[in-house]
TrEMBL record:
The keyword Ubl conjugation does not apply. Gene3D superfamilies: Winged helix-like DNA-binding domain superfamily/Winged helix DNA-binding domain (1.10.10.10). Signal peptide: none annotated. Keywords: Kinase, Transferase. This is CTP-dependent riboflavin kinase. It holds the Pfam family MarR. It comes from the Archaea.
């Protein structure tokens, strides 16, 4: 788990990873996916909520009252660099269809090409490892 989750127990870290992978999960499914009792699953979910890692909201799933657990993503955890080429945002953002032959896409690709390249150590003049 990441350094930000150092205050979590092993079970809590595993649970947080599950919630983040799923995007959202009903508590009635949460404890089953973790292979723990419903009581332990409820305690884990409540601890994650208290620590500010997830939100729990009342929900009905399969005819039963439960909670919908969703991860809280902090701004500092977001990385938009993969959407950028220099200072240009990807033409894929917010578009349902992108014309691969269009000017916006071509310009974005060219910006990617001309960014500072990553040069392997051998090519950069570093002696090869033996």
């Amino acid at each position: 788990m990441s350094a930000e989750a150092e205050d979590l127990s092993e079970d809590e870290a595993r649970a947080l990873e599950l919630v983040r992978e799923q995007g959202k999960i009903y508590q009635s499914e949460f404890w089953k996916a973790l292979d723990v009792s419903s009581r332990k699953g409820s305690r884990i979910a409540k601890k994650l909520e208290e620590k500010g890692y997830v939100e729990r909201e009342d929900a009905v799933h399969a005819g039963n009252t439960t909670y919908l657990i969703t991860p809280i993503i902090k701004d500092e955890e977001l990385d938009f660099s993969l959407l950028m080429a220099g200072d240009m945002l990807s033409p894929f953002v917010g578009e349902e269809e992108v014309d691969a032959r269009g000017d916006a896409f071509s310009q974005w690709i060219m910006n990617l090409v001309y960014e500072d390249p990553v040069i392997p150590e051998e090519e950069a003049g570093a002696p090869p490892e033996e």
